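Hey, resending since the last one bounced:
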Amino acid sequence: MSVAAVVIGRNEGDRLVRCLTSLVDEVSPIVYVDSGSTDGSVEAAKKLGAEVVALDMSRPFTAARARNAGLARLDDIGADAAFIQLIDGDCELRDGWISAGRRFLEENADFAMVAGRLRERFPDATLWNGLADAEWDTKTGEVTAVGGIAMLRRTALAEEGGFREDLIAGEEPELCLRLRRRGWRIQRLSNEMAWHDIAMTKATQWWKRCRRCGHAYAEGAALHGSGPERYRVRETLRSLFWGSGVPLAAILGAVFTPWALLILLSWPLQMLRLLFKGFSLQRSIFLTLGMVPEAQGVIGYHLSRLRGRRRSLIEYK
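The C-alpha cells again:
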C-alpha cells in the first residue's frame, strides 16, 4: 500500500528543503501547505515536486487547519494512498521510517496512527533544545496519543472527519481521543522516525510554548473532560495548583504571617520528587517552573471563553 505526505510550514528555509528532500524518494504525492511564507518556501517546494497549497491568511490560522487543507488536496488530486505521513517543515524524516510505519499499519488493521522516535537535531545547542529533546523521549508501545509527526490510516481519518480546526494547540491528541472512542488504537514504535529542529534560543520562547501547552490542556478539558477519560483534567488542575495556587497561597498568606512564604518550598520539593522518579535535574527544575506559564495559559483560555473571544495563535518562533 502506498504512502502520501502532508507537510506544513512557514518560513522554514533550508529546514523545509531538508524535510522535502527526505520525503521525495519515499512517498508520493507530497503536499506542502504554506501559511504565508516570505522566504521562498513555496518556490522551493515546487522545485522539489511538491503539490503546494497556499492558505488564505485572512482566516485565522491553525496547524489543524493547515493539515486539513493538505489532506483535502490529496482528495482533490485523486491520490489513492492508503496511509499519510504527517510532518512539519522543521523536521527531517529518518531512513527506514516510511517502510516501518507502513508495515505496522498493514499488519495491524485496528490501528489508526503510528509514530516512531522523534529527536532534536541539535539538542546541545541551547538549554531549550535539550529540554525539547527530553520531551520527545516518550514510551513506546500502545499509547493514547501521538504528536503531529506521525503516519495515519486514511480511512480512519476520513471516518472521524480530520482535525478540529478551531484548536490553536493540542489538535493531535484531541484527534487521537476521538479515534480511540471509535475503537481505533494508537502505537509508538521504537524505530527512529524524524529529526526535529525546534531552534529555541530564548527563555521567552520556552515560556510561550509552555503557555500554549496550558491553553491546550484547558481547552481539551473543556471539550472532553466530562467523558470517561477525564481528558486533560488532571493536567489542567496540576498546572493551576503548581503554577498559580502555590504562589498565590504564599503571597496572600504572607499578608498575615511571613511564615506563609514557606509554602514556596513545595516547589523545590516537587523538583526533588521528579528527580527521584528518574527525571534529570535540569528537566525536574523546568517541568516545575513551567507550571507557571502553563497556568497562565489555562487562565487565559477561560478568561477568553468568558468574554466570548477566540484566542489567537500562541507562537513561540
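The chain is about 50% helix and 15% strand.

Sorry for the duplicate.
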